[in-house]
Amino acid sequence: MKRLSCKIRSIDRYNANTRRVVLEIPVGETISFKAGQYLDIILSGKHCPFSIASSPDIKDTIELHIRPTPGSDDSVAIEKLLDLAASVEIEIPKGDCFVDAPVGKNLILIGASTGITQMKSIIEFLLPRKPEQPIWLYWGVLSAADLYLTQLCLSWEREFKHFTFVPVVSEPDQSPEWSGRTGLLPDAVVQDFSRLDDTIVYVSGSPGMVYATYDRFIQHGMSADDMFSDVFSYAPRTKK
Ligand SMILES: Cc1cc2nc3c(=O)[nH]c(=O)nc-3n(C[C@H](O)[C@H](O)[C@H](O)COP(=O)(O)OP(=O)(O)OC[C@H]3O[C@@H](n4cnc5c(N)ncnc54)[C@H](O)[C@@H]3O)c2cc1C
Question: 109, 132, 159, 182 - which has most CB atoms within 10 Å?
Fold first, then answer.
């Protein structure tokens, strides 16, 4: 693990609350991480985790997507840092939920809100390696305006014939123009698959959402060892 001070190369707004932040790796330094890992931004000694959105194949920059949590003092401090600072201190890599080769089974990636970030890194690592098994990306958001990466996800569908993108809006009342899938992510997956045998699943979201997905998928035939999430490490429950 390394601690680095990285210059902020750019910050762009995806929408009202989510920003894309690109950090520069200092000249002469190297970074090593696996697709799906995260880093910590160090904030007055406190560690704030953020999934790495870029592929490990990119060596000179790191992309993050940052959306403040309402009511969080740490989020307020992170936003202020991004508004004012020229560089940030990071610790990298973190996390044991990653992909380092095509998985050799059907792969379902599930991201809630900015949980898409972890899945983006995994997809951008895997697609150039031409995996033979199909990949599904389920992206769950509250309102359609939160689907800030739709064009990119559709470009993956065009590029890779075994890749399917399924956006799911959980509060369609907020998005009267939305005509796509609605409801909760685990329900959407279970509607699409008669069984989840022989399927690897990666999930990024809150502990409640991840464990609800886990329980639902076990009932639907998923093997207990076939689901991966950072939640299992940072918010373990006695029985997974
Ligand atoms: C492993 C991990 C990765 C994260 N990645 C991001 C990210 O890419 N972009 C981002 O804006 N925030 C991310 N967060 C949340 C971010 O760290 C916090 O919002 C921030 O540090 C403020 O801290 P907090 O404890 O007050 O807020 P909280 O929002 O309470 O931070 C902890 C919570 O973050 C949630 N979380 C886990 N993964 C993600 C995720 N990918 N996106 C959003 N929330 C998540 C979990 O529900 C956890 O309970 C991540 C959190 C964790 C644990």
Answer: 109
Helix axes 185-192, 207-219, angle to 10 degrees: 20
Ligand 1 centroid from CA 94, angstroms: 13
Give the 3-state secondary structure of residue 76: helix
Q: What is the pTM of this model?
A: 0.95
- Cα(112) to ligand 1 centroid in Å equals 11
- pLDDT tens-place string over residues 203-230: 999 999 999 999 999 999 999 999 999 9
Cα–Cα dist 199/214, whole Å? 13
Between CA 136 and CA 33 the distance in angstroms is: 23
User: Whose alpha carbon is nearest atom 9 of ligand 1?
Assistant: 66
* Segment 34-46, tens digit of pLDDT: 999 999 999 988 9
Distance between CA 104 and CA 129 in Å, rounded? 12
Q: Which of 145, 185, 148, 189 is nearest to 168 (CA)?
A: 185
Nearest CA to ligand 1 atom 7: 50
